[in-house]
Known about the structure:
The chain is an alpha+beta fold. It folds into three domains: 2-32, no CATH class; 48-170, Alpha-Beta Plaits; 175-333, Cytidine Deaminase, domain 2 (3-Layer(aba) Sandwich), CATH 3.40.140. It has helices spanning 2-15, 61-72, 111-121, 125-128, 146-155, 165-172, 177-192, 232-250, 274-283, 324-333; strands spanning 19-20, 25-26, 30-32, 48-57, 86-88, 97-104, 133-139, 201-206, 215-221, 265-270, 287-292, 317-321. A hairpin with a 3-residue loop joins strand 2 (25-26) and strand 3 (30-32). Helix 7 (177-192) runs parallel beside helix 10. It is globular. The chain starts with a helix and ends in an 11-residue tail after the last helix.
Amino acid sequence: MKNANRQMKIQSDKEYSHIDFENGIIHGKLKQIRSSSNLDFDSKNPTLTSVWCCDIPAHLSKPLIMFIREFITPFDTKSLPHIKRFDKLDKKETQTYLRAIVCSQDFIEEIGSLKRYIEQNIERNDEFKNVKLYTKMVPMQQPGTKEVAQEWSQDYWPMSWKGNPYHQELKTCNIVLRKEQDAMTQLLTAVESAPSDLPIVTIFARENPGKDTHEIIKIFYDSRNNSFLEHSILNAIAGIADQEKCRRSKDNTITDTGYLCQNLLVYTSHEPCIMCCMALVHSRISKITYIKPIPSTGGLESHYQLGDRPSLNWRFKIWKWIGEEEVQKLESIDTVDRTTNFHA
Length: 344
């Protein structure tokens, strides 16, 4: 038994050798930015979110799992990894039943839309036509201790406790380094062509499964010299919104969530200011990666960790690029002291 446990530990160490758990760094280039308030909350009154659930006979679990894996997981940003997807119910007559979480209600709000989405994409859809869908409220935060996980399992829905929540997120973040490196290269190339007094650039991109790079939608520059509201982030949100409205008007197969930047990726040279960070929260992006912190006005690592606060109605992943080559290159281009009185 001891040998088996030792082998398992060796295997685990190899699998996660690219992760510095203590400092929240992966591949030596990306540092996770998190709000301490995520593990500092009243466990008796956690922030809750609504999810769609259903009760199914056990033999339908396989097509439901395949549907969730292919049509929910890649798109639903509220993955809730701390919550078990399936829970065994008591037998009904001779048949075993399971209750399952299908997706968050943020992903699909209306029951009619969810039914159509299931019917169009699930195998054996005739057997799912009579499956009842209902909502439940579950904790948004990951439980900070095993004891809290047990309490929430009784009060809300079965929790999955696998140790420190931040460590688990680092293990499951599925970041492909070559894609991030390519995005950083394109970002810094754009910075080089930006005005010398405002070398601040933002890229909006889309996940591109199966490809070596993300799909770069557009590159946006900072033009605050024209207007104090024309930060590169705000220019990007406005530009993407116009572009997305046009795209959706031409393609009626796109699900219109009402949010024009939802689940997009953002790469930006400087830590966004508080105003821009809140605009990103309201735009419902999926992830942001930036290079240079702005201690005076930044809204991510410098102040508030906006985008990762349980009290907000949307959260996104925050990463700081710390690769030495890229950091030094940006420093050589942007020689202005932005430590005080500057809004990126």
